[in-house]
């Protein structure tokens, strides 16, 4: 036991963690989820980008995921919605999902991010979910076709959004009442499961005659 200059004992060893430390830390499970879902998004964006270039070179090119009139990646790639910002959507995904991979890898390497960073990540994933939801509606009711790689990106985005939201609620980065924090602590799997279930039901009912015919 050491003493300071005024003779008061000073404990040695690892400093006691503070509330800020607890808030900045993130579980490894979340880190792996961000890394894996981000990688899935990068993969989907990369494949779609390559197929888009091939389609531009050869209008008769048929992507491997164009399996039938419903699951038709080519129809989605050739739509106006596929370049909502004036350039192919997957090029945005290549950047955004790569950032998420880096965040997950950083946590696994021991990095700690401040509350404002988590809120920023939450806002980014919220935008991603909103954009993916718009694309989903366009695919189901305007384009009338599905892209399997797009579906992978949708699922990856909503998983990372709900995971980051749950983390921010549990750590109080997002203000929430106690019962809501308890819910996200014990049933954090429920919102993404429900979200994916709703998407699955919409896809199933949209082409019910095709699936059951």
Automatic annotation (TrEMBL):
<keyword id="KW-0874">Quinone</keyword>
<keyword id="KW-1133">Transmembrane helix</keyword>
<keyword id="KW-0472">Membrane</keyword>
<dbReference type="InterPro" id="IPR041714">
    <property type="entry name" value="VKOR_Actinobacteria"/>
</dbReference>
<keyword id="KW-0676">Redox-active center</keyword>
<feature type="domain" description="Vitamin K epoxide reductase">
    <location>
        <begin position="27"/>
        <end position="168"/>
    </location>
</feature>
<dbReference type="InterPro" id="IPR012932">
    <property type="entry name" value="VKOR"/>
</dbReference>
<feature type="region of interest" description="Disordered">
    <location>
        <begin position="1"/>
        <end position="23"/>
    </location>
</feature>
<feature type="transmembrane region" description="Helical">
    <location>
        <begin position="30"/>
        <end position="48"/>
    </location>
</feature>
<feature type="transmembrane region" description="Helical">
    <location>
        <begin position="116"/>
        <end position="137"/>
    </location>
</feature>
<keyword id="KW-0812">Transmembrane</keyword>
<keyword id="KW-1015">Disulfide bond</keyword>
<feature type="transmembrane region" description="Helical">
    <location>
        <begin position="91"/>
        <end position="109"/>
    </location>
</feature>
<dbReference type="InterPro" id="IPR038354">
    <property type="entry name" value="VKOR_sf"/>
</dbReference>
<protein>
    <recommendedName>
        <fullName>Vitamin K epoxide reductase domain-containing protein</fullName>
    </recommendedName>
</protein>
<feature type="transmembrane region" description="Helical">
    <location>
        <begin position="187"/>
        <end position="208"/>
    </location>
</feature>
<keyword id="KW-0560">Oxidoreductase</keyword>
<dbReference type="Pfam" id="PF07884">
    <property type="entry name" value="VKOR"/>
</dbReference>
<comment type="similarity">
    <text>Belongs to the VKOR family.</text>
</comment>
<feature type="transmembrane region" description="Helical">
    <location>
        <begin position="143"/>
        <end position="166"/>
    </location>
</feature>
